[in-house]
Amino acid sequence: MYQLYITIKLLILLVFLSNISGHARSQSLPPTQVIDSSPSVTITFNGRNLIYPALDKIPDLNDPVVKQWVKELDLSKVPNLPMSNGGQVSYDQPNCESETYMKSDQGSWTCQKHAAPDDIVTCPKVGHWGLTYDDGPSKFTPKLLDYLNKKNLKATFFVTGSRVVSNPLTLKAAYESGHHIAVHTWSHPALTSLSNESVVAELKWTIKAIHDVINMTPIYFRPPYGDTDNRIRAISKAVGLITTLWLPEFDSQDWSLVPDPKKSVDAIVQTFNSWMENFPKMTTGFIVLQHDLYPQTVDAAINIIDKAIKVRGLNITTVARCLGDLKPYVELFNNSNSSSGNKNSAAYNHSPSMTLMIM
């Protein structure tokens, strides 16, 4: 059963990648200057300017760029499911007790802990730790990068578009150091509280910002708070993204250090210790939720890794590599699979038997 689980997950990933459309390469150079303005932000690339939406806000749906993105996508398979929070944009987890939100086929990861067959929730091989950091790049990320590089470790960075625009050179440094860059939306909202069009805008602007800096188009995506359901899954799939989550027990809780100054890094280390106590009993690897937005979370990350590298049999790597994916960008995959077609299709092939493999 375990070998079948691995085989099915890898087959699902391969089918998904084979259907991702090719994206035009940008010829722009990495940004050298960032200028904040309202209601937009302009990044200067080697003498030419690129304009982005205002930072940390839902992008404007009246923007012709967004309208064109929505027009080009096939959203016909997106189920008609209600938005959380009554459709009011939320920058927190949705209210799981709302009768207007939860439907029998909602498939909410936040409220029902429902993982779809094609959600990535763990590393299939025993001993593999999918190292991930959300919400950056921040001014504290370079400290983490320096540490990881010294230890010759690679991580997956789920970045927000607003932080990419604010810290483009940090993103460039992470990519050039061999780390895996992935999508974490533009402004970090609870995606289930957004309209279909707003979700598209959040994802596509982030993809564009990443591509403008590293000249690669990301494939992997993590929704803020892990907040996804069957509607959000269908939209992200149409955009060409693989949803990556984590098992609830592998939330490092490092985010709790920021609002609670009395809480110490030791509390996060204790969480890590509990994982290691169960490590010999694990039948798969795991993916951990961590963050690089604040100094407290970066310090916690370094403290944890200092201990993790001493654990025998633990292989710390990126999410893509723990899945056996050595080409986690559209351009790399397309270069080796030039015959992959279906311009706007990014759908998996589902079968009922695959649903059982995630349990």
UniProtKB/TrEMBL annotation:
Bilayer disposition of the protein: Lipid-anchor; GPI-anchor
Keywords recorded for this protein, A-Z: Carbohydrate metabolism, Cell membrane, Cell wall, Cell wall biogenesis/degradation, Chitin degradation, Cobalt, Glycoprotein, GPI-anchor, Hydrolase, Lipoprotein, Membrane, Metal-binding, Polysaccharide degradation, Secreted, Signal
All copies of domain NodB homology, residue ranges: 127-319
Subcellular location, record wording: Cell membrane; Secreted, Cell wall
GO molecular function annotation: chitin deacetylase activity; metal ion binding
Cellular component GO terms held in the UniProt record: plasma membrane; side of membrane
Cofactor requirement: Co(2+)
GO BP terms, alphabetized: cell wall organization; chitin catabolic process; fungal-type cell wall biogenesis; polysaccharide catabolic process
Domain of life: Eukaryota
Signal sequence residues: 1-26
Family: Belongs to the polysaccharide deacetylase family.
This protein's name: chitin deacetylase
